[in-house]
Amino acid sequence: MMWLIAEWRRLYRQRSAQIGLLLFGGLLCLYAVLSGARAEDWRSKLQALGDADRAVVIEAHTMASHHRPASPEQAAGAAFHFAKSSAPHAMLAPSGGLALGSSALDVLPPAVRVTVESRHTSSRHDATLANPLLQRYGGFDLATAIALLTPLAMIALCAGIAQGAREAGTWRLTVAHGSGQGRWIAAAIVVRAAAVWMVGAVASSFAFVLDSGATLGAYTAWLVFLVVFVAWWAVACAMLNRLPGSEATAIFAGLGLWAVTTFGVPAMLGARLDQQIPIASRLATVVQIRNVQQDAEAQMPTLVEDWYRAHPAWTPTVPTSHKWPVTFLPRYIDQEARLGPIMAAFHETRAARYVQAERWAWLSPALSALYVADRLAGTDAPRYARFAAAVDAHETAWRAFFVPRVMSYRGVSSEEYGRLPAFTWDGESSEGAWRLIWPLLGFAALGSLLLAGWRGNRWKGWRTR
């Protein structure tokens, strides 16, 4: 205990350490405020969308009750317009740790509006055709800042303590009153690691406080992971203090370890996944979409006849010359039937790559931090893949409700607006909870190996230095 108290006092009087911790804390708090505010903004947007959707349905119900279409064509057109662009959004409910990483929602939207058209080809809904697997996943959130900056803070404070004391000529004087050099190094690293953890915990608290949807469970799980994350780097820095040479040697070795674990290991995992679970080519996908579009447009008359032949109960009672939108709906149905599986494969592939990489993420503390943050935020790829599948199922039900009423020129009555298909999806899953054990077990295994190597030598080689 006396060693810990002495090191607290030493750290408190060290000017460079104070400046480093203040800079580290300032950066983390800045990203915490931005991440927390962004998470709260997303929750407000989703709430506003839900309120607007309910207002649109009520307005459509009122209009249908007081204004009856003058002709079957107008009834079909009114039903088509509502089904095309007025469906309530299917919502991906974020989890309690959204403040850790909300920028993923900028890439894969949490609110999807289903339609009777094709969501994958109509430029009215998305100006570009993009493969989400090839886009950058997320941005620089609080979890990213912690994953990148925390190791640097640990290396700056903890690496080269012993080498620096030897260079300054204070090594023997510092450990003269102790029973061994290892105890002093351990006390110095524990104190500095505690200071780094407290900075990260305070910054995380700011982010969670700003997010009204944050939960105590997510906050606690993140702090526990942060303890293991800092402890792993503390053990690594203890090993760096055993290196021969100067203080600069230990610091550069620590930076090399940080670069390898933060960038090298994820790159190797990505290369391995490219071989095992390859990503579909964006160019090939675009060509396939264009071919499906052209083929469906060329077969529009045939598709209309085939639809009526397959649904005789919805054949118009009065023969008429079919016009838009009746002539277009079978084309959209054909396009969606052929393009839906292609687009669903994107999310399935992304989820498979995520799960496979997560099994080996414990080799990279930074990568593990991002995966834990994704799970706690509810933006991980497997959860989004389940959400996308639920949206596709909901769109199938939406299309099955409106298409017959448009094709038959009957439209939608005011009573039927009260029976619209509703999006239902249980977004909660226990999968994310037990998967948090993977990085903890991996960190514990690696940390134990490093600690065993450190204790095995007992710092004997330094007594004569």
Walkthrough of the structure:
The chain has helices at 2-13, 15-66, 72-85, 104-107, 142-158, 161-168, 171-174, 181-210, 216-240, 247-276, 282-298, 300-310, 329-360, 365-377, 381-407, 431-435, 437-457, and strands at residues 90-91, 111-112. The chain is mainly alpha-helical. A two-stranded antiparallel sheet has the order 1-2. The protein has 17 helices and two strands. The protein has one domain (1-458). The protein starts with a helix and ends in an 8-residue tail after the last helix. The protein is 69% helix and 1% strand. The protein is elongated, with a radius of gyration of 30 Å. α9 (216-240) packs parallel to α17.
How much is the radius of gyration in Å?
30 Å
The beta-strand count equals 2
Distance between the amino and carboxyl termini: 27 Å
Summarize the main sheet: 2 strands, antiparallel
Low-confidence stretches: 123-138, 457-465
Output the number of helix runs: 17
Total domain units: 1
> Into which percent range does the helicity of residues fall?
55-70%
Question: Would you tell me the structural class of the helices and strands?
Answer: mainly alpha
Strand content: under 5%
Chain-averaged pLDDT: 78
| Global morphology | elongated
Along the chain, the helix and strand elements come as: HHHEHEHHHHHHHHHHHHH
Strand order of the largest sheet: 1-2
